[in-house]
Amino acid sequence: xxxxxxxxxxxxxxxxxxxxxxxxxxxxxxxxxxxxxxxxxxxxxxxxxxxxxxxxxxxxxxxx
Amino acid sequence: xxxxxxxxxxxxxxxxxxxxxxxxxxxxxxxxxxxxxxxxxxxxxxxxxxxxxxxxxxxxxxxxxxxxxxxxxxxxxxxxxxxxxxxxxxxxxxxxxxxxxxxxxxxxxxxxxxxxxxxxxxxxxxxxxxxxxxxxxxxxxxxxxxxxxxxxxxxxxxxxxxxxxxxxxxxxxxxxxxxxxxxxxxxxxxxxxxxxxxxxxxxxxxxxxxxxxxxxxxxxxxxxxxxxxxxxxxxxxxxxxxxxxxxxxxxxxxxxxxxxxxxxxxxxxxxxxxxxxxxxxxxxxxxxxxxxxxxxxxxxxxxxxxxxxxxxxxxxxxxxxxxxxxxxxxxxxxxxxxxxxxxxxxxxxxxxxxxxxxxxxxxxxxxxxxxxxxxxxxxxxxxxxxxxxxxxxxxxxxxxxxxxxxxxxxxxxxxxxxxxxxxxxxxxxxxxxxxxxxxxxxxxxxxxxxxxxxxxxxxxxxxxxxxxxxxxxxxxxxxxxxxxxxxxxxxxxxxxxxxxxxxxxxxxxxxxxxxxxxxxxxxxxxxxxxxxxxxxxxxxxxxxxxxxxxxxxxxxxxxxxxxxxxxxxxxxxxxxxxxxxxxxxxxxxxxxxxxxxxxxxxxxxxxxxxxxxxxxxxxxxxxxxxxxxxxxxxxxxxxxxxxxxxxxxxxxxxxxxxxxxxxxxxxxxxxxxxxxxxxxxxxxxxxxxxxxxxxxxxxxxxxxxxxxxxxxxxxxxxxxxxxxxxxxxxxxxxxxxxxxxxxxxxxxxxxxxxxxxxxxxxxxxxxxxxxxxxxxxxxxxxxxxxxxxxxxxxxxxxxxxxxxxxxxxxxxxxxxx
Lengths: 64, 817
Fold this sequence. Notes:
The complex is a heterodimer of chains A (64) and B (817).
Chain A: H1 13-27, H2 32-44, H3 50-58
Helix pairs in contact in A: 1-2, 2-3
Chain B: E1 3-12, E2 15-21, E3 27-30, H1 37-49, H2 53-56, H3 65-68, E4 82-89, E5 94-101, E6 109-111, H4 115-125, E7 131-133, H5 134-142, H6 145-156, H7 159-197, H8 204-217, H9 249-266, H10 269-287, H11 289-305, H12 322-335, H13 337-371, H14 381-399, H15 403-413, H16 418-432, H17 439-507, E8 517-522, E9 525-531, E10 537-538, H18 540-543, H19 546-565, E11 571-575, H20 583-596, E12 601-606, H21 609-617, E13 626-633, E14 637-640, H22 643-655, H23 659-681, H24 695-719, H25 723-743, H26 764-780, E15 791-793, E16 801-803, E17 810-812
Parallel strand pairs in B: 3-12, 3-13, 7-11, 11-12
Antiparallel strand pairs in B: 1-2, 1-4, 4-5, 5-6, 8-9, 9-10, 13-14, 15-16, 16-17
Helix pairs in contact in B: 5-6, 5-19, 7-13, 7-17, 8-17, 9-13, 9-16, 10-13, 10-15, 11-12, 13-14, 14-15, 14-16, 17-19, 22-23, 22-26, 23-24, 23-26, 24-25, 25-26
């Protein structure tokens, strides 16, 4: 049988996806501020509501 | 993360008081349906997670954990329903006792209490997937792609990923929706500016050329460039405040014409047909009460999801389980998905109508401003009311709900009141009688209005650009997230599918050695296709048998668990899984579990004793790694085939002079043990395809077999010239022969008078020695030290030894060659 492909430790798959997302944002030239806000929201606060995500996208900027 | 040493269950589900010693090893619980196996599974899940999936899943209605987890006789005293377990945490190299009561399911008592253990038990609590039932197993395989995605996401704890994906997509959609009014406003402002400048197209050249023509009349300097701050009135003196404002005749005439055109469009055939189309859709939705309620609920749930962030309810401040509540609300939204699609389709059709109303609002507002210029002002109240109506209609159409209001608005949308036309006509008359301005006044009016509209245009463009930039940013972020998460998940599923295929091939290598599978994630769905004998990839339920599907479910679960938990996948309960898997493949499953998951403790339930024997034969469970439940009743719960308990029970019956019950129990016990003995001693028994063996077909062969084995052992010892051993085996053989004679078991086939069928007719005093004789006979099959029945090793091919569990009995059967 082929060697199982699995992590050595417990895999926090959401965290893996979020980290990859932050890297993709940086690569795509999205502002550092936005990336920092997303890091706080997704990985530190673990807040996933629409309100939290909207704040992460736009900061405190009001909509026009 | 953990392994379980033992579990004690009190007054819980169908169990009164039961302790099972797993010893941190694989363990099987076997018994007919309704003997309490699932009660043990429930207790394991409960003590580790504080929940019982079977009581909290879909369709459980009024069944609740608090009320129905306790034994039915203790339903009003949930504190008495207790489950405790001795748990080993390999990473800490320590053993803990954990306990929960049905009164406070969320509270776990950990002894000794320390931070590291508390954290590990909190993590275990978030992993209800450690218990896998056949119902759940098949869900991974046969579900629709959307449902499968949900199930596997829950197993992999991917719901957070899905939350973010859905949230970002919703923000992007919402920002694009919000952009529409800004675009409409900018378009109106462009049209109004072009109209004021009397040009067909807004270009730098046209604007400068037109403005400079008017500026020349006023003797103002030529504008060389048109930038973002250029004022068309640059250098023009501010009119004296005292001079009454006059209606700019030429512009007013143009604007009146534009307003009439838009009102004509509103009441025209095209709009009527658009309205009729949307109304037909809305009436269909509104005709179904469930749909109306569903659309309202969908709005409520979607809105409510935003507030499930803190650990307490914002209304009552009671604590809630954030993840459980989110999952619950999401499952409700999932059910309303079809409605959501219908709603979006109708909303799309509403957009051009909303744009039309916005245009009407803008155009009539211009006329209202003209009407306010003369003293006294021209009466335009009805036009103002119409503008207010347009504004209200836009808001209601955008809100969509309540449906009745949207329908009411649409029914009146094409009705433009005559009073509005009357007001416009009044203004038109007043404008018509205005004297034509001088060339200079006309130029002044022209530049003043053009500048006003240029300001409005610039502001509306700024807002439109800002809204567009935000919408683009939101969409970009959402797209980046979607592609990144798909990429990561594709990688993850790629790993899982490889592992899954390898595991599945291991149990089906004889017929599907080239098996392959595809797990394909896409926009909230997870496709799952499997190879069917090289004929292509199909859904698992398309051609594979039920047994193969069971195997796939287990392999997919194991592959996913190995991926999530890695080295921490140390415990799993397999509740009645693989019942559709045939004998040959079950052996392979045992080998797979033992070989591929050597550090995982599997607790398995089954109603099939043969399946349990496979587990023993293949070494998945040890000789003491199983319990066999024989009966269950509401007063005492499950009863096991436990030697000591059986003899005590038989004596209890006899004490009450109930020979019939004692005889029945003895017979059932002997049936169970003689099957076990035949299996262990590799007896020659007349084969029955239905596996329905009677006691007379099993116990005499088992007795003869042990005596023949002793004879073979003596011959072997003789060949090795082991005189002491010959003497020891002879003594064992003699002792056992006496026990066999005492029980008269070997006489059954020749002497019907001593046959077990006649036991029911014996008196208590006649039956007592019979029971005692069989107790001693069974003891003769067991090691005096460990009390385990002897077994022949190996279990196939040439018999080499007679052994017991503790190793004190180890009699050679092979002669010197």
